[in-house]
Write the structure tokens for this entry.
Amino acid sequence: MQKLNGQRTPAGPAIDLKRLMLFIAAMALLFLYAPVREYLSWTIESPYYTHISVIPFVTAYLIYKKRREIFADNSYAPALGCVIACLGGFGLIAVSMPALAQGWGKNDAHALTAAMTVMIIIGTFIMLFGKRAFRAAGFPMLFLIFMIPLPTAAEDWVIGTLQSGSAEFVGVLFPITGVPVLRNGTVFQLPGISIEVAPQCSGIRSSLALLITAVLAGHLYLKKNWSRVLLALVVIPVTMFKNAIRIVVLSLLGLYVNRGYLESSLHRDGGIVFFVLALVLMGPILYLLRRGEESFDT
């Protein structure tokens, strides 16, 4: 209860603890299931998908923030929820069967495991809290899609696109520095040094993290779908530009300061520094999109 002008008013609907405990118990069983446990362990060791373990906590926080709206009027929806959860469950069992999974790469198997896991979570939520609650919790629940790693074919395409785009930006930045350079595709020949924009330089890990950050920021700070989509799309050139700056900076340090910089910790583990740079670049874009929304509203 809260006080308003000396009178006591309802503080909002209370969460049905029975439903909540059932949901938590179902999620605990799900995450203890061996294939799901193996998938989660793989994400922690993965060079690209370490962010996945954070996604459920972000979803839980977003639901907590909107709890009064989401849990205002809960009703069971066993039919729809059970269909979605059962489809996910059957798919999860099928993915774990060696006869069916034979020939799949580990990345593809984990992508399917994650997709089925998300279906089970969504289906269980609808089953216990109802369709109205799911509509109110639409963004947090659909945010779980970021738990799904890219299938191998999609991952290779993204890496190739980021690699090519980063090389184009490198080709623009090197002449600005005044360093003589010869380019052959993704290879840049500097005086005494040959630099290649390799697939490892694509920045797919930071681009995924930046995309997730942009989608979350768009949900929290923007009101229009068009501006949210634009913010997410801008991640692509920003990531390429950030990669190019990293490559050029390391190349110049290796050329004029010490060749060791080309194999230093800044090269191997310095991605966080340039990720912060990407966030700084995204800040003004977010500000301009907010101003653009205000202009359209007036």
Observations:
- The radius of gyration is 24 Å.
- DSSP finds 14 helices and five strands in the chain.
